[in-house]
Amino acid sequence: MDIKVLGSGCAKCKTLEQATKDAVAELGIEATITKVEDFIKIMEFGVMTTPALVVDGKVVSKGTLLKVEEIKELLTK
Amino acid sequence: MKQKILAIANSNNAWILPLLLLPVWFLVYYQLQSVADFFTDAIFNMETGSHLAESIRFFIFEVPKVLLLLVLIIFVVGIIRTFFTVEKTRKALEGKSLFAGNILASLLGIVTPFCSCSAIPLFLGFVEAGVPLGVTFSFLIAAPMINEVALVLLVGLFGWKVAIIYVATGLVIAILSGWLIGVFKLEKYVADWVYQVKSNQSETNEEKPSFSDRINAGYKAVIEIVGKIWIYIVLGVAVGAGAHGYVPEDFMGSLLGDQNWYSVPLAIIIGVPMYSNAAGIIPIVSVLMEKGVSLGTALAFMMSVIALSLPEVIILKKVLKWQLITIFVSIVAIGIVIVGFIFNYVM
């Protein structure tokens, strides 16, 4: 699974990145988590509100700081 | 208990809990003065009229009052916001003409969910979709300046009249500043790479949120925002309470009263470097006004703290050339000065 956290380094984006790592660890799944901070790349996903979460190229959440439980739900869908 | 509340919140009857809590809210809210009096006079057994007693009475009354107002308004605004998304707002503004577009953008700026950390992707998304630059600026000025936290604090500490004046003049500044930026055709001062951005605008089929989703968004907003700013409010009111009891009336009048023409520009210069502490600043300003700071100066100060912030300008530097940043800051600052002068001299 390929997970991207989109965000330009604000506090919320860092928190989401950590929450995503925790969610992946708790689920025990294989996933690469990358942080995307370049605005041009962020815009390629059509996202205007950060932080956003992209799973396998699909935007699953934007503009909200998800909790670990919520991320787990999104990843297991 | 918490589990139980969450279980109720997640069911289809999500509206029941807020409806039950509303009378409780009103009951508590309208008893605050007697509770504050009870604590100061009976429990602490203090002499009415002494500086310390009045400071403590102010603190015990204002902190729960502002927090109660915050919880109610943020909950309601959190629900309203679920009806608006940046995507819908962008669609509404695409290719809009000047002025009409500026008015719409400023109004949508109030209700569209916005966090200043998303200012850049939002700017890119708007400009790339064909929202005119001036219209985009109207949105970017109104969105942070007129927000629910500022509104609650203004209503709670200054009353409805000042709150309405703040919102109305804030809207006028956002509309006219954006309109001017549009009229001057400043697109050439946007960083060159901005117009090369290609965004993928494929319609993500958003699920329409259910009614309980909307109620839950209200809870989430309350927990997130109140959780973040309550400490600033407590500190701000504490400083205000200290000043309330001890600083003599009219103390500030000599420096920031309406006799001094420079009080408004001075307030703006002090206000710009202060950032995101609106929650703590407004309680202090409310007490300064009691001590002789005039309404125009206080409004100018609050607007400059909230709307013109150094960190936000630095963020915008990534997408704007310095000429446009200078023009943007100047226009908004002049707008705030005019508002300050109008209320100091005309009203």
Number of domains of chain A: 1
Q: Give the CATH class of chain A.
A: Alpha Beta
From the N-terminal CA to the C-terminal CA of chain B, the straight-line distance is 52 Å
Mean pLDDT of chain B: 84
Low-confidence stretches of chain A: none
Radius of gyration of chain B: 22 Å
Helix content of chain A: 40-55%
CATH superfamily of chain A: Glutaredoxin
Strand percentage of chain A: 15-25%
* Spatial ordering of strands, largest sheet of chain A: 2-1-3-4
Q: How would a crystallographer describe the biggest sheet of chain A?
A: 4 strands, mixed
- CATH topology category name of chain A: Glutaredoxin
Name the features:
heterodimer, A: 77 residues, alpha+beta, Glutaredoxin, four-stranded mixed beta sheet, 3 helices, 4 strands, globular, B: 347 residues, mainly alpha, 16 helices, 73% helix, 0% strand, flat, transmembrane helix (chain B)
Any overview of this molecule?
The complex is a heterodimer of chains A (77) and B (347). By secondary structure, chain A is α+β, with helices and mostly antiparallel strands. Chain A has one domain: 3-Layer(aba) Sandwich (Glutaredoxin), CATH 3.40.30.10. Chain A is built from three helices and four strands. Chain A has helices at 11-27, 39-44, 68-76, and strands at 2-6, 32-36, 52-55, 58-62. Chain A has a four-stranded mixed beta sheet with strand order 2-1-3-4. The longest helix of chain A is centred in the first third of the chain and has 17 residues, at 11-27. The radius of gyration of chain A is 11 Å and the shape is globular. The two termini of chain A are 12 Å apart. The model of chain A has no long low-confidence stretch (mean pLDDT 88). Chain B is mostly helical. Chain B has one domain. Chain B contains 16 helices and no strands. Chain B has helices at residues 2-10, 16-43, 51-81, 86-93, 100-111, 119-128, 133-145, 148-158, 160-183, 211-246, 253-256, 263-271, 278-290, 295-307, 310-316, 322-346. Chain B is flat, with a radius of gyration of 22 Å. The mean pLDDT of chain B is 84. At the A-B interface, helix 1 and helix 2 of A face helix 4 and helix 6 of B.
